[in-house]
Amino acid sequence: MNYYSLHKKAPNVTFKDAVVNGLAPDRGLYFPGNITPLSNHFIKNIDEYSNHEIAFKVIEQFVGNDISKERLQEIVSETLSFDFPVVAIDENIGTLELFHGPTMAFKDVGARFMARCLGEFTSTTLSNRTSTLSADRQDTLSNRTSDATTKKQKNLTVLVATSGDTGGAVADGFLGVQGVDVVILYPSGKVSDIQEKQLTTLGKNITALEVDGVFDDCQEMVKTAFLDAEIDRTLTSANSINIARWLPQMFYFFFAYKLLHKQHKELVFSVPSGNFGNICAGLMAQKLGLPIKHFVAATNVNDTVPNFMVNGNYNPKPSKATISNAMDVGNPSNFIRIQEIFNNDLVSLKSAFSSYSFTDDETRDALSKIYQKSTYIADPHGAVGYLGLKKHGLKENEYGVFLETAHPVKFLEIVEDTLGVSVAIPTQIKSVLNKEKKSIKITSYQDLKAFLNR
Fold it and tell me: Where are the beta strands (DSSP E) in 25-128?
């Protein structure tokens, strides 16, 4: 499998190189060179397969020969060590719970898969690193003698921006992975207390940089660092711009189909969307042959994509802070991949994809309505997904699924204040609550560069 840059100005690469590079040299996102639909027999007989077998069949073609089949099966098994239930909310709506992993967020799947893939690649990538450097840079690196600098040369650095859950999932997924350092950028004061604890308390090979700004500032710093020749580290990304973070998110759309297809209703998925990697993975699952009728991208007031779907003009803008903070993205990176899936044809896109935005007041109201209807406690992101289904409207022969992307405890104050109930603290969260936060505050790209080059 080869991958090409969506900017079309960089060489094609293998799965391994796309994962290690993170972003193409022309700042484009990587996209698979070909997508082969799965067999109709597999789709029709999906009940005969375990979740691990389904995931292996889904991802195998995208990995190619860069990881052996035996090791890829192990990676899938290690990644998917928790459940993905669908919980009924009413007669024609259910929620797909994606928060049963170690950090209680949907991003556990992509982070765990990527960490294991990168662990496979690290030794060979770094052993070949010196031979690919320019002569001048080889001389520069060979003259560095301190232990700290030697460590910096040997380790691959995973650089990631987070608007909430990505940081915690990546930190957990990569914790203690040999040969890999993780640097997480997050916007100060714009993630929940529990989310901040999850990404600032682990130590070891994980460092949190607290940015004076918004998520888009963090994301732009990451992209800039990738192409800065003056940075002394080998960098890759663990955001959904990285194919190893993005593609595994296809898995749980197949799992949901396996659970629901016997209802003999057409499926409509509503996905709370920030950087649009999750819903893009769902559209990739559809392209592989999964019979999903329609996708709804439900956003908060950061409405760049909903506006595009109305007027055809893509106008990114500064992000706004909301109670569904993981979706506070004004320029979603993965939307260009969605456009590529549909050959940049807006009419074709509209046939399979809709997008609507909602305010914080509407989100709180949805939390209350879901609870009143079913006693189900959703988180703000899931509530936005529910609103997407309601706005889109479901026909008699359709079943709507909204993704519950994080456990409500991660937004404890908002949920408890809105519903007037107490949310039990799960074990995964209790383990970090009393740990000491450790972060380094930065205000500019130059601060990030100085940290990386220290």
Answer: 30-32, 86-90, 93-97
